[in-house]
Amino acid sequence: MGFSEKPDNFMQAGRSAKSRMDTFFHWLTLFLLVFFAVVMITPFLWLLSSSLKTQINIFQFPPQLIPDPFMPQNYVYALTYKPFGLYFRNTLLVAGLNVLAVVFTSSFCAYGFARMRFPGRDFWFGIVMATLFLPYAVLLVPSFIIFSRLGWVDTFLPLVVPPFFGGGAFNIFLMRQFFRTIPEEIADAARIDGCSEFGVYWRIMLPLSKPALITIAIFTFLFAWNDLIGPMTYLRSPDNFTIAVGLASFRSQTDIHWDLQLAASTAVTLPVIVLFFLAQRYFIQGVVMTGLKG
Amino acid sequence: MSSLSAQRESEPGFWLSRQYNRLTLKRRRTLMGYVFIMPFILGFLIWWLGPALVAGYLTVHKWNFLSAPRFIGLAHFEKLVSDPILAQSLKVTIVFSAISVPLGLVFAFFLASLINSKFRFIAIFRTIYFLPSIVPAVANAILWAWLFNTEFGLINYIIRAFGGPKIGWLQDPNWVMLAFVILTVWGVGGSMIIFLSGLQGIPQIFYEAAEIDGAGRWQRLVHVTLPMMSPIIFFNLVIGFINSFQVFVSALLITDGGPQRATLFLVLHIWRTAFSSQKMGYASVLSWLLFAILMLLSFFVFRYIGSRVYYENPGE
Question: Which of A169, A170, A280, B272 is the most exposed place for a label (fewest CB within 10 A)?
């Protein structure tokens, strides 16, 4: 009897030390989670709070946390000071065409890279990957020269036409990765039933790839919504401005009106956050599903 | 009936489909393959190779957009090596990259491990950590200009509340780089999510096996997590380096390249050379320089770091 007691006690002592360690790490993780959540979210709260203050209160020390008086009219001033409604429409037009272009042409090219076997395929895919590592900034100046020769400066064309040619290396790569997870047997069954290669792409692969397509649609929309360097380079007349250019020029003209600048910034950020919450599932699942694992 | 088929035969579509049917299966497949990737090939030729050639032509010409380009030989390249503003801009870009990329990588990995734990409301934390990375660049720049404001910014309020000095984040050339690193690291959510997906892809059985062999937390991290994650760490490293060479919006809107050119990042310098000074030739040379730097950097990263990456399923 005494013989069997000892190892039992020993095991228990080991287990409790381990569980004490686990409890410690449990609380440490929770503490760090909350701490960094505060760090991440404070700038947003500060932005929101400042955007609702009067021009005098915003410069008060110590700062007010809850604005008093409460100034929601800052948003009205800010958004009517410049024609943000017009900028919004321009941005929607540019972003919408970009999404359309990317969803169809990047999946189309990706189908060729993922499912067709032909000489030269790997060479061209190598070029796709090479352009992935080359940022837009490298080509900014020479592209501008080409577009100005075409007479496209101060139109939306430089912003919406290029995406129709493949839709960007990153999206081709993402769609290719996704297509490769769909069993080839489904496509073969369709081919036996007389489906052409376009039919397989259009009727089989696209409907099965909705999560990946939604993912690249969201990323493309965000990029177009946020992009400053492209619109700033090509759009000249204020009537053509997108939200990003409009906000940048609003900042340069209102100088110390922090209340209005911050209200406009909040207003521009809000749609993006709403979009994120609506599409969160696709956002994160899409990144995980398409893997990005190479 | 026969006249109908004769009419059909004269249609170009019919002619094409008959030509297509005459091809061997292998040729047909090749043709279809190129049809599918044709948008990319055209796009590459028109929007990548074309501009690159134009830039190549302009490197040896002086051109202000108005008059005809004038051939000047290698004068731009001579200017390149003796241009103090360019040297400053390169210094700024490289120092920023060398600090912000490793720091951002470690922080993103750390946050990913935090949100990989199992708590009840973990989805809320994931969302909060990710949100900063989707703030539009212009709004982000205005927000941080306000946060770093010397007199009324939140960051100096907090520092002074703890008895610290008033820091001229955006006026002092010695501090401004740190300010840019902080705002970059805050928006690290994208690579965090990629790390998270990687962490969740590691089979639990590896950890169980390591635990049975007596591995502690640290050993599990070093011998299981890091080797399994190395392809993703590598991916984020490459993307991080490329992004760090493209800082533009924040440099333009927060500091406009100042103070004393302490935030004159390379892309901002290129943009100004082209569109403020109208020196298209010299700007093309600078574009090629950026291209060369990125190629060189990619080469070294792949050569010296890529070879240490561990792939669970090579060739997949």
Answer: A280
Residue B152 banded pLDDT, cuts 50, 70, 90: confident
What are the residue boundaries of the structural domains of chain B, listed by start?
2-58, 77-308
Looking at residue B29, what is its pLDDT? Answer: 84
When CB atoms are compared, the residue of A36, A164, A287 closest to B197 is A287
| Statement: residue A160 has pLDDT above 90 | yes
How many interchain CB pairs under 8 A, A with B? 253
User: Is A256 part of any domain?
Assistant: yes
* Same domain as A152, residue A26: no
Residue of B nearest to A35 (CA): B125
Residue A57 in any domain: the answer is no
For residues A92 and A238, membership in a common domain is answered with: yes
Q: Which residue of A has its CA nearest to B238?
A: A133
Per mean pLDDT, which range of A42-51, A238-247, B58-67 is the poorest? Answer: B58-67
Q: Which of the four pLDDT bands, split at 50, 70 and 90, describes residue B264?
A: very high
ipTM of the complex: 0.84
Q: Do A139 and B283 touch (CB under 8 A)?
A: no
Name which of B131, B152, B235 is nearest A59 (Cβ-Cβ).
B152
CATH architecture of the domain with range B77-308: Orthogonal Bundle (1.10)
With respect to residue A42, please indicate whether it lies within any of the assigned structural domains. yes
A155 with A277, same domain?
A: yes
Task: Please give the average per-residue pLDDT across A64-82, as a whole number.
Answer: 83
Residues in B closer than 8 angstroms to A101, CB to CB, are: none
Alpha helices, DSSP H, located in B187-221: 189-201, 204-212, 217-220
B189: CB partners within 8 A, 6+ apart: B108, B129, B130, B131, B132, B133, B134
pLDDT band at B44 (very low <50, low <70, confident <90, very high): very high
User: Which of B27, B40, B131, B294 to probe by mutation at the A interface, max A CB count within 10 Å?
Assistant: B40
**Which tens digits make up the pLDDT trace of A128-143?**
988 877 777 788 888 8
Check whether residue A152 and residue A32 sit in a common domain: no
Please give the residue range of the domain that contains residue A240. Answer: 73-289
**Number of compact structural domains in chain A:** 2
State whether A32 and A155 are in the same domain: no
**pLDDT band at residue A3 using 50, 70 and 90 as cut-offs:** very low
Nearest to B36 by CA among A288, A187, A60, A108: A108
List the structure tokens of A130.
Answer: 């090479």
Smallest Cβ–Cβ distance between A172 and the set B40, B149, B267 belongs to B40
Asked if residue A12 is part of any domain, the answer here is yes
For residues A146 and A44, state if they share a domain: no
> Which residues of chain A neighbour B246 with C-beta distances below 8 Å?
135-137
Q: Which residues of A touch B93 (CB under 8 A)?
A: none
Whether A44 and A133 map to the same domain: the answer is no
Reference B280, options A141, A253, A286; nearest CA is A141
Task: Give the angle B98-A32-B100 at the CA atoms, nearest 5°.
Answer: 10
Question: Which amino acid is present at A218?
Answer: I
Query: Other CB atoms closer than 10 Å to residue A119's CB: what's the count?
Result: 11
Residue A29 burial (CB < 10 Å; 0-12/13-18/19+)? Answer: middle
pTM: 0.85
Closest Cα in chain A, distance from residue B24 (Å):
13
